[in-house]
Amino acid sequence: MNSIYRIKSFLKKQSEEVKIMFFYRYISLIVTSFFYFVGDSHHNIQRRLFIIICLSISSIILSYLYIINEKNPSKIKLLVLIETLGNCSILIPSGGLNSPYVWYSINTILMTSMALKGKYSWINTFIYLSASTWISYLVTDFNNYSFIDLIEEESNIILSLILITSIIRLLSKYIKKMEIKGKKVKEANRKLKESMTHIMELYQAVHLFTTQNSKDSLIEIIINHTKKITKANTVIFYNISNEEDKLICKGSKLSNDIKEKLKIKISDLRNNILDSQITIELGIEGENFVLIALKSNYKTYGILGIKLNYKENIEQLQFLSELSSIVLEKFELEQVNEKLLITEEQNRIANEIHDSVLQRLFSISCGIFALIKKEKMTSDEMNNELNMIRSSINSTMKELRSTIYGLSWKKEGLDYFVDNISNYINEVKKLNNVDISFNIKGDHELLSSLQKKSVHRIICEGIGNAVNHGKANNIEVKLNIKKYITLLKIADNGKGFDLNKVRNKKDVGLGIKNIHYLTQLLNGEINFNTRNEKGTKIKITIPNNINNFKKEEVI
Which of 375, 371, 408 is nearest to 390 (CA)? Predict the structure, then answer.
């Protein structure tokens, strides 16, 4: 049993062609030996067993030698020649062309067709037929029997071997064509998988960009994703707006000399790079770099570059530069828009307070002043006047509260935070046929806008990792928002992963990296509980800054 297991494990590592030749060799050996053993009445049993054992040993040795020299055509030719001559020699004691071992010679035809060029199959067949026919002639009675007579007598066998060689050659050509097509299909599948991976990484990147509240962190994420997607050893970013730290490098360390020369060369070619719509290649001390400008119609943000490994990187870099330019432009427009919204809201509040609240306060002030001036007034009259002033104050407070509440979407009955998460989960459930439960407790108004964005992104990353990498079909998401902390738990029944390997690996997956980054952004803590084939549990604790979210009490 142990030897059978070793043979199976050995064959698993071999190509399909080797497996075919391996099985045919031993099947043909067993079949031909059986017919020789039961059919040859001229030899005693001991002689037949001796021939079978010798042939079996040589077959095992040759199989091993063929496999270890599979990539060496010269040695294959030598082994085929040795086996062909050996197959001819075995005909001498086993009956010439009438021997069952004639059909064992197909092994060498199969070997030359699979491992060598087509002409060697015909050379091998010619050598075998010539030698075996001559040997048969020598071991046959010479009386009134010529060599031509022998050929005529054994013409069926000779013709069969020629036709078998032709069929094997045709099948060999077909198999090689199928191999070429198979390699093309594998390459196409590999590129398709890479494209799908790039799309997922870009999808994650675009969502992660929306959580950034500083340009520096946004640039850092652009650099990280460029390195991940292009698989470049080094990514550089030349920041044209930062005088202190112009050149940012990520990846394999460049020497200070190369960095300085690169900085000087980019500075010299800065205008050419910024004006160009395509990539520009630079060569510094044998290292090739590709650079492209990040710019919009009205502003230039910097220069993105990679250390060139493959030509495909150029197209990827061009696409990433366009995406990064859009993201940076959107970031700056959002900042301007946020300032405009704040200014607009300040003006709205000021106008409404001026038009209504201040007028009422002025009226209240006048009423109180008039009340003070009245010397003779009964207690009932005093109460009536005070009630009127109190009513006016309440109305003023309601107007002021209404003006302030104009900023809050919650007062309008909308709940985009929960809706967006639910919509994403429903979309994933439909597209991937997985079961996802989402439970939320507490008041999510305790969360700031940044916390809501980050929690939404963490949930998306956690679900995305569970579906795409963990191959999970059941995911549970729990969000518990308390007064001082927020607890987020994401559990799945996927295949999990080795946490120690992930921690020791420099090139951690973007999903895990993004979750860590977002948790750190919120000053939170994260805990992974996972093992291979045991699923994954993610527990995140985020502190709440409740001082900024105190609710007003209704008077």
Answer: 371
